[in-house]
Amino acid sequence: MADILLIALFAFLGAAAAGLLGALALRLLRHRPLVVSLTVVAAVAVTAMLAGTLTVAWAMFLSPHDLTVVTTVVAMAASVSFATAMLLGRWVAARSRDLTLAARSFGEGGTFAAPEGQATAELDALTRELAATSAKLESSRRRERALESSRRELVAWISHDLRTPLTGLRAMSEALEDGMAADSGRYLRQIRREVERMNDMVGDLFELSRIHAGSLTLTPTRVSAHDLVGDALAGADPLARERGVLLVGDQVDAVPVEVDSKEMSRVMGNLLINAIRRTPSDGTVAVTARRSPDGLVLSVTDGCGGIPEEDLARVFDTGWRGSPARTPPAGAGLGLAIVRGIVEAHSGRTAVRNVAGGCCFEVTLPAASG
């Protein structure tokens, strides 16, 4: 038993010395190619075995012939190990280079194309992650391009929308100043309407800028769906009467929500005004509030005739108006973008779909806790 322990001790000391030298070599060569590291690992394994074997052989006083035989056997094993390590290292290095080139392609604005051929499990996992990241980046690029295009269109449209009333205001003011206005009262009323329209436009721009900047401050209170719908219908009733549109709001579930009443009144007001303006005379705009597994769903259904399918995804984009007209009631295309921003600030979501004769805008809000 003592001889076995002594042999184990000598073998351990020899292998430990080889292992320490290998660890030092790996640290010094840690920035070198992978094939070098694999060769060092193979060398450590073979050297550890050789050192342990030779240490035990010397301790056992083997004959020179026996010692040569042992050394030759270990040397052959070392040669095979080195060759295998170098082949494995070159294979892994080649797959790593292919992966690096593929990653560089989508990093420079392209898309990631996974390199062909088999690779290790770790490289396969990395390839899948890079492919997923590439898909997310491409989606982000498309979204950024759409937002940039929307911003450019918005700037152009707002510039036009502001320039047109300003030109009219200047003409009317000059006519009043020169005493050339035959009906000064009509001119003054028109000036007031244009100023109010511009004030609404500037207010929408300010609200949208707060939403985009993340500085929209909410003051949530517990509100009933009845109150939300009732206040919205009361505010939109004068416009509906003026345009001959019937407002209906008799399907409302008693669902409490915690929202900023002022901001949600703006949401419902924007939806109703948009629906009334798009609905022909003698048409109907219906407002409902129903309980759902996600909370409260507020719906505004109009008689606009429907939205083209290719435009449904853009309805809530900034600047989208659904009409190339620049005169009222086309507006600046900010109302629905404000709706989405306010609803998302309440952890809700917006949606739109076509129904018979028109479209239905839906706002989903979380139900009040408790």
Automatic annotation (TrEMBL):
Residues 157-369 form the Histidine kinase domain. It comes from the Bacteria. The keyword Manganese does not apply. The keyword Membrane applies. CDD domains: HATPase, HisKA. Keywords: Kinase, Membrane, Phosphoprotein, Transferase, Transmembrane, Transmembrane helix, Two-component regulatory system. InterPro entries: HATPase_C_sf, HATPase_dom, His_kinase_dom, HisK_dim/P_dom, HisK_dim/P_sf, Sensor_HK_Regulatory, Sig_transdc_His_kin-like_C. The chain crosses the membrane at residues 6-26, 38-61, 67-88. Its EC number is 2.7.13.3. It is an enzyme of class 2 (transferase). GO terms for molecular function: kinase activity. It is found in: Cell membrane. It catalyses: ATP + protein L-histidine = ADP + protein N-phospho-L-histidine. It holds the Pfam family HisKA. This is histidine kinase. It comes from Streptomyces mutomycini. The lineage of its organism: Bacteria, Bacillati, Actinomycetota, Actinomycetes, Kitasatosporales.
